[in-house]
Design a protein that fits this description.
Elements (H helix, E strand, L loop, with lengths): L3 E6 L1 H4 L8 H16 L3 E6 L2 H5 L10 H24 L5 E6 L1 H4 L2 H12 L3 E6 L11 H12 L3 E6 L11 H13 L3 E6 L5 H6 L1
Helix pairs in contact: 2-4, 7-8
Length: about 200
């Protein structure tokens, strides 16, 4: 899709060491997206961090699938409410979409995303971990699926490469995504999400 970018933001960018949402960092991201949209560029966000956010409320062990799903349900609310507040402060409206693997095959998903972008909304996507934990093997792969669906020219991953102890991504996943997207003509860019204005400086 012309002038549209899919941006996956890792939990290591969004969270503090205590798994609290970094509102300062999120505000910086919102400001960049507002500037991009003013320049006529559409942005689709793929967000990680629901399980990590919820881990402050659930006695979580990484190997316990049910507890991770419970944490995801709590954490997703925190993610959405925080992003919604901060993005509204930048005159942006997010539109939450929670997906499982089978939803990618829905004929309506492309139309919904396209309509949101045309209306000036920011699609705010995460895996629906509460009902189907890790069906995409991580949000790097989910983001790649969305980039493929929308036929974007580039796919951006904002990360620190240190990762979160609650995530399942990492360097190997990013290498696989880069390889598979490259075969269909989509370039993957791995950026340090904690560098100020990294998206603006890369895209504009």
């Amino acid at each position: 899709m012309e002038n549209t970018y899919v941006v996956k933001i890792g939990s290591s960018v969004l969270l503090t060491r205590r798994n609290k949402l970094d509102e300062y960092r999120i505000a910086q991201i919102a400001q960049q997206i507002a500037s991009l949209m003013e320049a006529g560029i559409g942005v689709v966000l793929v967000i990680s961090g629901a399980v990590a956010c919820g881990s402050n409320f659930v006695d979580l062990k990484k190997s316990d699938k049910v507890l991770r799903q419970e944490a995801a349900g709590i954490g997703q609310v925190l993610l959405t409410s925080t992003f919604n507040t901060i993005f509204k402060n930048n005159n942006l409206q997010i539109a939450q979409i929670l997906l499982t693997k089978k939803d990618i095959e829905s004929e309506n998903l492309f139309e919904v995303l396209n309509n949101y972008l045309k209306a000036g909304y920011v699609p705010f996507i995460n895996e629906n971990d509460v009902v189907d934990l890790n069906s995409f093997s991580g949000n790097d792969f989910l983001g790649a699926e969305i980039a493929t669906l929308l036929k974007t020219k580039e796919f951006f991953i904002l990360s620190t490469m240190k990762g979160s102890s609650y995530g399942i991504g990492g360097g190997e996943a990013k290498q696989q995504v880069t390889y598979h997207l490259g075969k269909i003509g989509i370039k993957t860019r791995l950026l340090n999400g904690k560098v100020k204005n990294i998206l603006l400086n890369t895209i504009l």
